[in-house]
Design brief:
globular; single chain; alpha/beta
Amino acid sequence: MNWTIYLAGEIHSDWRTELAEAAKTFKLNATFTGPVTDHPASDNCGVHILGDEDSAFWKDRKGAGINAVRTRTLIDQADVVIVKFGEKYRQWNAAFDAGYASALGKPIIIIHPEEFDHALKEVDEAANAVARTHQQAAEILRYVMKGSLG
């Protein structure tokens, strides 16, 4: 079986590539999907496609709507959703993606540093596992996909 893993959350590091590389070393039969990680493209897709806006609110609203088509479709298709909360920015979108996945009954793995434990306690409660690193998340995938610890 080929598993589809949606990688939600922060887009300011290469954690997705690192997790996918770890999965390759474990020889996991997985396809990784995720949001558009080109930050300017994600921010500007609405006005680029649908036309300029005078208000930042409406510019963001257009882009968010278009990005949601991708996000919702790929989360709907995912077997597992991994959500990473990075250390630099508050990622409200990551929390929303985790909530959406939870509402769909998707298995969820959360990645975040220990200092976010309190702030993310409700998100963590909805998750099946909370990892500190993308390597731990890859090891969780290895275990659930192969049924082995090594």
